[in-house]
Design goal:
The complex is a heterotrimer of chains A (274), B (429) and C (336). Chain A has 274 residues and is α/β, with parallel strands linked by helices. Chain A is 32% helix and 20% strand. Chain B has 429 residues and is mostly helical. Chain C is mostly helical and 336 residues long. Chain C has a single domain, classed as ABC transporter involved in vitamin B12 uptake, BtuC (Orthogonal Bundle). Chain C is globular and about 70 Å long. Classes of the chains: A alpha/beta (274), B mainly alpha (429), C mainly alpha (336). Chains in contact: A-B, A-C, B-C. At the B-C interface, helix 7, helix 15 and helix 18 of B face helix 4, helix 10, helix 11 and helix 14 of C.
Amino acid sequence: MSGGPYDDRGNHDASITNPCGMAEDDPVHAGGHEHPAPGGPFLIGEAMTGGYGRGADILHSCTIAVDRGEIAVIVGPNGAGKSTAMKAVFGMLSLREGMVRLDGEDITELSPQARVRKGMGFVPQTHNIFTSMTVEENLEMGAFIRRDDISGTMEQVFDLFPILKDKRRQAAGELSGGQRQQVAVGRALMTKPKVLMLDEPTAGVSPIVMDELFDRIIEVARTGLPVLMVEQNARQALAIADKGYVLVQGRNAHTGTGKALLADDEVRRSFLGG
Amino acid sequence: MRTLALFALVAALILGTGVLQSWNSALIILNMGLVSAIMALGVNLQWGLAGLFNVGVMGFVALGGLAVVLTSVTPVPEAWAAGGWRVLGAIAFALAAIAGAVFAWKTLPRKTRGWAVAAIAVVGFFLYRAILDPAVSAIESVDPAATGFLGGLGLPVLLAWPVGGLLAAGVAWVIGKTALGLRSDYLAIATLGIAEIIIALLKNEDWLTRGVKNVIGLPRPVPYEIDLQNDAGFVETAAGIGLDPTTASTIYVKLGYSVLFAVVLVVLLVLAQLALNSPWGRMMRAVRDNEEAAEAMGKDVTARHLQIFILGSALCGIAGAMMTTLDGQLTPSSYQPLRYTFLIWVMVIVGGSGNNLGAVLGGFLIWFLWVQVEPMGQWLMGVITAGMADGSALKAHLLGSVQHMRLLTMGVILLLVLRFAPRGLLPER
Amino acid sequence: MDFLNALVALANFVFIPAIAYGSQLALGALGVTLIYGILRFSNFAHGDTMAIGTMFTILVTWGLQALGVSFGPLPTALLAIPFGIVLTSLLVLGTDRLVYRFYREQKAKPVILVIVSMGVMFIYNGLTRLIIGPGDQNFADGERFLISARDFKTMTGLDEGLALKSTQAITVVVAILVVALLFWFLNHTRTGKSMRAYSDNEDLALLSGINPERVVMVTWIIVAALAVVAGTLYGLDKSFKPFTYFQILLPIFASAIVGGLGSPLGAIAGGFIIAFSEVGITYAWKKVLTYMLPESLEPSGLVQLLSTDYKFAVSFVILIIVLLFRPTGLFKGKSV
């Protein structure tokens, strides 16, 4: 038995079922409420413990935080739970212990959609654009929850990523890898978020494009928007980070400023490769 | 325990029909229940064990019916003389043309092969029609009121059952090869289409099946009632247990069918159970539950799927042949997808997908309900309309449409089971 | 002259019927493809949704006729369509609330929804037969012909008549209007775009704050509207019989798949491809060929490639050919 009473018995018949674009996450259910919880950093996932579905814990009392005007970076070896920690902060997996606070409120029980409304912008690692829609439509969909005029924000995004303005009428799926990531970040910025979360924004792009993306991210952070990101390219990421978290097997292994971590012998030896 | 209890319930329902209505009705339900159970077993093999979605059950059942005609009907020599061999020639030519097209596709260079295949197809089709058409009209004009078709081989009717299975298996091979071989699996739409085509063939190719004129008086594996009634010994025995000859003979004949069908069902069920628990069955389930892992272990998933699709369809073909034998006639216009495809699906889902006993149980139970919902509906409508004035249009309409209650009921049963017992009455272990 | 006669015969017996039939199939296939894109399963109950929706329209039409309401030369049924749409929307929304929603919440695999739709199919089918009966119902009124064959002959002096039934003209006009409206909605409104986004990437749509239940609700309403319009047009053009509507499921599925499941543009193209091949291959070409060929070559038979009963075979063969060479359909499907 693969998955409960409503599994598909291995049926992949394209004439009756459409797996494309289906939801795969198991997020916090809608209907929870926030509670006031003053103090602490702007966004913090504190002592988070949890895993997917009924599976084993992936995170073990893991803490991640970012404050105004900062770039915080989560790094670590493969399978360390970096992306899981990020998803936990965003409510894409239910915590068994710990809490998430944003701007003086406990938002642990909020669904991801509700967190977007609270001002969190999230860029998933994969499937982070609407491939069949134009660049402009992607940005419009990013701003779906807004009822005011979005043209100003769209201009700001186009200023940040000029190439998108030229390709605004093109289907996002036809763009190159780096351009797609720009669309993805731009989409998240359209809500005018109070904090931006990026899950491996440079995965699968060339080094040149990666540098450019980092530049753009720094530019975003300079506007005062806190940025929390997971990165595979630890050196470059720590170099621009105000705060770094090294995760190992779902636990905080090292925490410090980006520079301090880069200078730390143990971090270098065990993780950055010398 | 649960299995036993549920089967006892079905037995009680059928016995109850015998006591309350008549033993004849009970046996009619039992016989079609046995046939339905085999069909459900076939679909369960495909869906339960491999996740294959076959919505063309009707087509395979109808092929079984065709097998009965082709095997057991006495040949019509005049029709054979008029054009029988020419028809065979046309079919042989068509097969050769298809083989030629496939050969051309495989050997010619990319640029030209499309045109070559198209040319072979078009020219082949017209030549085929040119060979076939005169033969067909010659055959169909041989005493059209009585025959007008080639007839069969005149072999014993019991032989038609395995032939039905083989015929269905052959067609299933062609469909499976095509639909499962595509980059995505398109089996559902393929089976949906082929079933309609098979029915269209049966309705239109009069030289083969007499079309909508039906083939009646098919040979039977059991004696005729009238012969029994004229048999002094039989009448005496019947009188001995207090039955009049007519009732006794009809019950005797139906019991004969029941025994034959039950033997087939038991044999097939035992085989299915053995297969399910054999290494082959375990592998099929492994493929179903984790296709990628199975593929990584070197299992050819498409070939496994093709295998099981053919097997399941063959079961439907056997059941179809049995059903036509029971009816004693082939009536192509009686094949309806709701009854012969989707009702079988209800049986499998209600019984429990993946569990052979469940499918058999579902076959009996749903067939019982399919038959008995009508009298129940009649009674219900009687109660509802009791207060209405006689002769009111609404009352007449309600009473007249009782027979459609069964469709409604089947839908409700399917939805209720899916909601509250999603794995069926007898879940897969 | 013979050439003109041949053309007129071709238009009369092939083009016009195929265009009307193609429009009906396209509308049906649009409904199937929308459900496939948004709810991610093939809806086996679609044919019966068309049947029950048409039944509502017919009942309202009869009511209007009884009240003495008429639409001049146009069929009264056109006035009844909005009522039919409202009633059918209520029915499918109720069905979604009672039946489908539960499985969405359970995150059931799409194939389970296919089986669920079989149950719904049984129920709709039973309801239709229970209420209006299984027989033929004729509900067309108003002017029968826009141009009758005889008028055309006297007008042009040709031997061949060209008859344009008003139902055919209405079918095409209404289909164009409905399709234009649908595309405008999908491409230029906020809700329409959110539907496309949801179909493209459900997770990301949720992250963007798109409410899935609302998307699903709007989809059902559109599908109900398409089904009612398609069913009513088909019923006006031919006749209404519940079983025919169940059978039309196959050409509709074939149209949607040929065009590329999930692609609205593909559904329309698929509808016309299927319709033209069905009509073309089951038409007896003797008349046209008699005009076109010299007398010596005149065909003796009907020159009918296949008997009309094999029209399903035609949709099926086209389907297989397309799938063999373009597995995702002509318009690369799977996104609305």
